[in-house]
TrEMBL record, chain A:
Residues 17-74 form the V-ATPase proteolipid subunit C-like domain. The gene is atpE. One of its GO terms (molecular function) is proton-transporting ATP synthase activity, rotational mechanism. It is found in: Cell membrane; Membrane. Its main location: membrane. This is ATP synthase subunit c. It comes from Streptomyces olivochromogenes. Belongs to the ATPase C chain family. Keywords: ATP synthesis, Cell membrane, CF(0), Hydrogen ion transport, Ion transport, Lipid-binding, Membrane, Transmembrane, Transmembrane helix, Transport.
TrEMBL record, chain B:
One of its GO terms (molecular function) is proton-transporting ATP synthase activity, rotational mechanism. It comes from the Bacteria. The keyword Transmembrane applies. One of its GO terms (cellular component) is plasma membrane. This is ATP synthase subunit a. It comes from Streptomyces mirabilis. Key component of the proton channel; it plays a direct role in the translocation of protons across the membrane.
Length: 78, 272
């Protein structure tokens, strides 16, 4: 067994990189929701109330992931 | 964290380019911990509890004043109260639970909505400037309340076996994947859902408060030598973030109540 040799090291806050990665998915999701919501509103303006409620519901489900990402460094960080 | 660290650590002399060599006093967990204002028999009463108490007094007092002596032709206050009550009733409860089933839950949902909204709004009120719901215990208790209501309504409506059928999403037509679906649905409905219900509100207000504190502290920190324009940018960002937070606070109260209603809708629905 060869002794492990450190070839590269990272210093600083890895949490910020992690959060950046974690925000990609929810970002795409929120974009899809509001994009499709706007399209639905344009196609059927009379269903505005129902569309808006469902849009915000979907937005909340997506956004939760990004928000858990914000909190996790505080929970598991040193 | 020790008691003396609990106040927002902010050193007035800490400025960029100053000689005392202190860095940016970044906000963190310490921005959410407070020294007790008073100790009543070993019970430490701090600013967050004071704000929570004020919130409940405000909500009760407002609706008391609006509806205490309700008239057929409403006065100004009653008009505002009715508009708020009707918003939750028509916009959230009727949309999800329907008129017949929903009417019973309207008072709870209205109180939840306004309680959460006012708890959030403290975030931008001068001198208070702290969202009560960014302390995890508050959303947890509210989510637990909804969870207990949901569980008991499901039990009442479907009986013991029906409860487990409802919670596990039992559906014979699924065939082979049914056991897998049942395990996932069971965990998702009973454990993950109340957790995310609480975390959604908490994390939104937590992140919002961090952001407000950061831009506010940065505005002061940057106000030195040639960095003054940067302080201006930071100050403008503070104003923009406050406006954005006002929006987020209302949306989060709305979402919390909407989700509570949609969980109840699952409990009231006939299983097939």
């Amino acid at each position: 067994m060869a002794a492990t040799e450190t070839l590269a090291a990272v210093s600083g806050s890895l949490g910020s990189i992690g959060y950046g990665l974690a925000a990609i998915g929810p970002g795409v999701g929120v974009g899809i929701i509001f994009g499709n919501g706007t399209q639905a509103l344009a196609r059927q303006p009379e269903a505005a109330g129902l569309i808006r409620a469902n849009q915000i519901l979907g937005f909340a489900f997506c956004e939760a992931l990004a928000l858990i990402g914000i909190v996790m460094p505080f929970v598991f960080g040193k | 964290m020790s008691a003396d660290q609990t106040q927002l650590a902010f050193d007035w002399s800490c400025r960029i380019m100053s000689d005392n060599g202190c860095g940016f006093p970044a906000p963190g967990l310490h921005s959410f911990l407070f020294k007790p204002l008073a100790t009543v028999g070993g019970f430490e009463f701090n600013k967050v509890m004071l704000l929570a108490l004020l919130t409940s007094i405000l909500v009760v007092a407002f609706f008391w004043a609006a509806f205490g002596k309700a008239k057929v032709i409403p006065g100004k206050l009653q008009m505002v109260g009715e508009a708020g009550y009707d918003f939750v009733r028509r916009g959230i409860v009727y949309e999800t639970l329907g008129k017949r089933e929903g009417e019973k839950y309207v008072p709870l949902m209205v109180s939840l909505f306004f309680f959460i909204w006012i708890m959030n709004i403290w975030s931008v009120i001068p001198l208070a400037q702290f969202p009560v719901s960014s302390v995890f215990a508050f959303p947890v208790v509210l989510a637990a309340l909804v969870w207990i209501l949901w569980v008991s309504v499901t039990f009442k409506r479907h009986g013991f076996v029906g409860f487990f059928k409802n919670v596990t999403g039992y559906d014979k037509s699924l065939g082979g994947v049914l056991p897998l679906v049942m395990v996932i649905e069971f965990l998702s409905n009973l454990i993950v859902r109340p957790f995310t219900h609480a975390v959604r509100l908490f994390a939104n207000m937590f992140a919002g408060h961090l952001m407000l504190v950061m831009f506010t502290v940065a505005s002061w920190y940057l106000l030195n030598s040639w960095m003054v324009p940067a302080a201006g940018v930071s100050f403008v960002m503070t104003i923009v973030m406050i406006l954005f937070e006002l929006f987020v606070q209302a949306v989060q109260a709305y979402v919390f109540v909407l989700l509570a209603c949609s969980y109840l809708q699952g409990a009231l629905a006939e299983h097939h």
